Structure formats: structure tokens, C-alpha cells
Amino acid sequence: MSSLPQHIAIVMDGNGRWATQRMLPRVAGHKRGVDALRACVRHCGEIGVGVLTVFAFSSENWNRPPEEVSGLMELLAVALSREVPQLKIDGVRMHFVGDRASLSERVREGLEQAEAATAGNTKLIFNICFNYGGRWDIAQAAARLAASHQPITEASLHSAMAMSHVSDPDLLIRTGGEQRISNFLLWQAAYAELYFTDLLWPDFNEAALDAAIADYAGRERRFGKTSAQVASPASARPERQSMLSRWVA
Ligand code: FPP
Q1: Which residue in 215, 226, 234, 239 has a CA-CA distance of 20 to 30 Å to 132?
Q2: Which fold has domain 7-248?
Q3: Residue of the nearest CA to atom 2 in ligand 1?
Q4: Catalytic machinery residues
Q5: pTM of the full predicted structure?
Q6: Alpha carbon nearest to ligand 1 atom 24, residue
Q7: Ligand 1 centroid vs 208 CA: distance in angstroms?
Q8: How far apart are CA 121 and CA 89, in angstroms?
Q9: What percent of the chain is modeled with pLDDT above 90?
């Protein structure tokens, strides 16, 4: 197993608390969150991570105070116009994942332009989940398959989902001290290694990402197998299985 996760996913939690602790409006925390995200994208590119997926706005975030929702929309539009030129130079390919139908035309155009501008890049795939929910993704994939009369199987669902362009995440990080998935990558995170840190997202930096990766490197990924099988695939040989099955009979 490679000690470097090929695909890292992050729930960037704690912006609001970071701001409140400093008597700032919550949106100031999100703004600092963009700075932390920029550093994280750069670091992933430098160390050779292939895919970074972040949860920037959930399907449920519409329930936040209107000024925070509009602040996040504005922040996205501003961040795109500022960051895309450098991301383009750095070889980062951007993908927006989520339901675009209820986004404003301005935001939608911003996403499309960012994707088009970086479409030729191959160094790092950067997925930004925006107006995204894991349940939404599973439901929209099933609905599309049903509408085209295709069978619903694990493989067909996987390929109809919004993250079908990348492999599943190896490491899923959540900052901010909470230990839950919150409707993020429900399908794709089936075998992700989970890593929780109390750091608030604006305080998450390169060293914190390295610490998460070092923790991941010490995990044993078994994908349903036993530890012995992972250590020595020969222990899964059929003749050995039949010998062992005598103990079960
Ligand atoms: C969760 O923290 C964070 C979000 C809902 C938004 C994440 C967005 C960014 C990091 C900025 C990048 C996004 C764009 C739009 C480019 P929280 O507000 O729930 O924090 P809390 O748990 O402390 O209240």
C-alpha cells in the first residue's frame, strides 16, 4: 500500500467558531477558510496527491442565516476570479460537484468558466462539492438510471454518480472536532480512512495535512479481508481455505 493517499477528501469545519472566537462575523471565518484551502491545494500538488475533494457548501447549508448563505456565494465568486489564474498555472483541474440548478446564474457561470479554464490540467484534480449532499448524489444517479431504463447495480450507480471521474477517497479528514460524515461522499467513503482533528479549518495548514497523511500511513487497509490476507495474499489460496473450512464444519 502506498503511504501517500491518492485521493484526500476534507470536511472543512470550524470556520464559524474561528470567527466567533475573534468576535468577527462568521463570513470572516469562511474568508480565512479560503486561505487555508489555497495552502492545502498547493501542498497536495507539491507532494503528489492526485485528487483533492472538499465540502464547500452542503445541500443543507441553505438553512443558514441568509447573510451567511449570500456571503458564501459571494466568496465563491470572488475566490474563483482571484484563484483560477494561478490554479491554471499550477496544473490544477477544477471540478464542481453538486446540484447546479438552484445556483444563481452568476455563480453557475463562474463554475463553468473555472472548469473550462483548467480543463487541460492533469497534476491535481480538485473537486469542490458545492450544493452537494451524498444522498442527493445517490438519488440523482438512481433517478437517471431509472429514466433511461438501465438496471440499478453497484457498477451502474457508481458510474452515474457525480464523482465517477475519480477513484474513491483513501483518506477523509474532518476538522473542527466533530466526528461525523454529515452527508459527504456517503457512497464513495465506504472504505476511506477517517481522520478527525480538533483544529478549526482556518488553522489547518501544511503541517496539519502532513500529520493526517502520516496517521493514514500507519493504518492497515483491509477492504473486508483479514489482516493475514493483507500481509500475505498467499494465505487466501483456495487449498488453504479448504483446510480451514474443516474447523467450521
Ligand atoms: C463549515 O464551517 C464550513 C462551511 C460551511 C463552508 C466551507 C467553506 C470554505 C472553507 C471556504 C471555501 C468556500 C468557498 C465558497 C470557496 P462552519 O461554518 O460550520 O463552522 P462552525 O462549525 O464553527 O460553525
Answers
A1: 215
A2: Undecaprenyl pyrophosphate synthetase (3.40.1180)
A3: 13
A4: 13, 61
A5: 0.91
A6: 16
A7: 18
A8: 9
A9: 86
Task: Please provide the DSSP assignment of 25-85 as one string.
Answer: -HHHHHHHHHHHHHHHHHHHHHHT--EEEEEEEEGGGGGS-HHHHHHHHHHHHHHHHHHHH
> 51-58 and 193-196: which strand pairing?
unpaired
H-run or E-run covering 121: none
The residues facing 127 across adjacent strands are: 53, 95
Is the minimum distance from the CB of 34 to ligand 1 under 6 angstroms? yes
Residue 149 reports pLDDT greater than 80: yes
Average pLDDT over residues 30-56: 98
Element (H, E) at 143: helix 134-147
Closest ligand 1 atom to residue 73 Cα is 15
Q: Whose CA is nearest to atom 10 of ligand 1?
A: 33
| Position in ligand 1 atom list of the atom nearest CA 58 | 5
CB 38 within 8 A of CB 92: no
Q: For residue 24, what is the DSSP state?
A: -
> Under 8 Å CB-to-CB from 184, ≥6 apart: which residues?
9, 11, 55, 58, 129, 132, 134, 172
Residue 202 near residue 161, CB atoms below 8 Å: no
**What's the mean pLDDT in 105-117?**
96
Cβ of 38 below 6 Å from ligand 1: no
Specify the DSSP class assigned to residue 233.
G
Radius of gyration of the chain (CA): 20
Cβ–ligand 1 distance for 121 under 6 Å, the answer: no
